[in-house]
Amino acid sequence: MIVTLTINPAIDRNITVDRLAFEDRAYILDQSESAGGRGINAAKVIHSFGGDPLAILTSGGDSGRRLEEHLSHLGFRTVVVPIANEIRTNLTITDRQGLTVNLNEAGPHISKPEVRRLEESVEANLKGAQWFLIAGSIPPGVPPDFYGKLVGMARRHKVKTLLDADGEALRAGIEAGPTVVSPNQQEAERLLNRALLTRSHFLEAAERIRAMGAETVVLSLGSRGAVGAFPSGLVEALAPRIDAVSPIGAGDALAAAFAWALSRRHSYEEALRWGVATGTASTRLPGMRFASLAQAQEIFPRVEMRRVE
Fold first, then answer.
1. CATH number, residue 158
2. How many domains does one find in the chain?
3. Are residues 303 and 225 in contact, defined by beta-carbon separation less than 8 angstroms?
4. Range of the domain at 186
5. Phi-psi region for residue 251, left (φ > 0), alpha (ψ -120 to 50) or beta?
6. Which of 150, 190, 196 is nearest to 166 (CA)?
7. Is the pTM of this model over 0.90?
8. Residue 22: what are its φ and ψ, rounded to 5°?
9. Residues 78-137 pLDDT 10s
10. How many Cα atoms within 13 Å fall on the side-chain side of residue 187?
């Protein structure tokens, strides 16, 4: 079983327009609504790959009821921790050329008793889990070291952890020593307080983040693929050239497929290849849709693997 946590879920509104241009109108071609948040997205991918995810999430207000209704049709198990305030709504606008604008709300304030109930729910559901994916932003009211606390809890239960976060939550979580941390380029730049522009920058960044406390680092680089800093050394996974439609959510797909592959006892290098294949395949789909196992399998042999000597 793979447990995912989404402490700051959202209703994702996805809008496709003809084109996005500065100071010019765009015409809506399609729009949809879905349950969103990194942990929920990861559970979608793992479930579609034949895995057994359990998604833990918060929910409150009318938008929370809509979120739960969307989740009820997805086919995997969920544990809902009620909160008093309305969960957020995020807006993604994509044009036919793949240009994307992503507008996210900060999320609802969560009280100390609600945080405590969430923590208790996580601990109760870690029993029997193989992996615990801690994913996404933390909303107001949640201390920045909360993810680090959960990493320590999972370690006591002998459950492996994958941390996919940003800002102070990412920094504190890394210091707690997760099994895997999977920042994207922008998150790594904020963490290290420097721009990452070249291949040598990416390789150095992955090593530096691993030195901060993570056992393994997967640095997601969008269309470039990813860098893995593993106990055995540095590995690059180079994504093939494709016609991308929507890049939003590709990092979620990469992290989910990486954990899924490790849960099936693939090597770190094979897992990284699965991650990049799944993230790349997902960018070929409109809106916040994720590649199926068959779509990832199509890309898998085209991902070039390079060990850095």
1. 3.40.1190.20
2. 1
3. yes
4. 2-21+28-307
5. alpha
6. 190
7. yes
8. -65, 130
9. 999 999 999 999 998 988 887 888 899 999 999 999 999 999 999 999 988 999 999 999
10. 25
